[in-house]
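F.,

This is the one I mentioned.
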């Protein structure tokens, strides 16, 4: 523990020294930063910190608020039905002090995905549980099983069926000749060009939260219901350590939102935290993480938020056809209330 505290103090000193010359980098602790204009989630996380809750509590309560309110239909129950018409959830939480992680993916029947993720962290030696087994685990832990469908999700699914199950995330396949919605069989490679019509900023998606207390303890978390019409069993970036989020109390934390199938290949949250460890300004760390992906997928949709252990924060996003500016929330003692921030995409 002594060695950890010394390493953390040195890292904070290094970051503070290297960012002190940046006039735009204003630091304030405690701090909560979350993706998108999800003000209620930001308020819940900030209120938790202000009332003495831990950074883990703040992350959990912020994500849980979004799950309960079905933020933009992209978090929590009742949104993003898969090809079977079922809503499934992904979530993750990470303790930057201990480097413990709990995550769930393809979770069914349980509305409080972030709570289940924390239960994985605190009641198992595992990091990630998926599918039906994750749902059974949640029920055994006392979480209530409920139908995650709503009139809205049923309507979305019905309209998709009437449209011959198009668009979808399949490629290089064709359906049964007598049906339009599968079963699908492989065929020769071809380009369908459907991603840009599905993965866009208008649908929002993951809530990612990073929280720091007065002593620089860090936690991060995510929650989402994934992509509408996804192939059943699909897992995106949100519950993947280093992709959806990452936290290390000796450096900082980051969280990502966007096209998870692409972003998870580059571990943008981990990269951003490692850059901040070397003293890179959070805004630049986020931008570098986005640039790494942009090099291979110039039109992808995505954004990253970052915060270091001194309370400096930043964000970056890729300029895609549906995203020219990214909005996020910041809560600290300067305002003592969640404030909407924005960054121009590049």
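My design for it:
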């Amino acid at each position: 523990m002594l060695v950890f505290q010394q390493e953390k103090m040195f890292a904070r000193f290094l970051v503070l020294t290297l960012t002190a010359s940046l006039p735009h980098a204003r630091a304030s602790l405690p701090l909560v930063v979350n993706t998108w204009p999800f003000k209620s989630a930001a308020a819940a996380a900030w209120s938790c910190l202000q009332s003495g809750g831990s950074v883990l509590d703040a992350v959990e309560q912020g994500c849980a608020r979004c799950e309960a309110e079905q933020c933009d239909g992209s978090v929590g129950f009742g949104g993003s039905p898969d090809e079977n018409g079922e809503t499934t959830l992904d979530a993750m939480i990470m303790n930057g002090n201990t480097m413990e992680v709990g995550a769930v993916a393809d979770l069914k029947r349980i509305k409080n995905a972030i709570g289940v993720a924390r239960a994985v962290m605190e009641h198992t030696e595992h990091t990630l549980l998926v599918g039906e087994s994750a749902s059974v685990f949640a029920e055994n832990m006392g979480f209530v099983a409920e139908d995650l469908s709503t009139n809205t999700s049923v309507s979305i699914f019905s309209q998709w069926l009437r449209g011959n199950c198009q668009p979808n995330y399949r490629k290089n396949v064709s359906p049964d000749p007598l049906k339009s919605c599968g079963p699908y069989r492989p065929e020769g490679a071809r380009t369908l060009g459907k991603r840009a019509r599905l993965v866009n900023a208008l649908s929002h998606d993951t809530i990612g939260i990073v929280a720091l207390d007065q002593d620089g303890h860090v936690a991060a978390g995510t929650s989402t219901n994934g992509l509408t019409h996804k192939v059943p069993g699909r897992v995106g970036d949100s519950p993947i350590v280093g992709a959806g989020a990452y936290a290390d109390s000796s450096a900082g934390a980051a969280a990502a939102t966007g096209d998870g199938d692409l972003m998870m290949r580059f571990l943008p949250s981990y990269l951003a935290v490692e850059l901040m460890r070397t003293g890179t300004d959070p805004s630049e760390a986020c931008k570098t993480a986005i640039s790494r992906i942009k090099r291979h997928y110039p039109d992808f949709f995505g954004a990253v938020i970052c915060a270091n252990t001194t309370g400096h924060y930043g964000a970056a996003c890729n300029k895609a056809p549906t995203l020219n500016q990214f909005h996020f929330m910041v809560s600290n003692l300067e305002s003592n209330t969640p404030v909407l921030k924005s960054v121009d995409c590049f």
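Residues 151-197 form one domain.

Talk soon.
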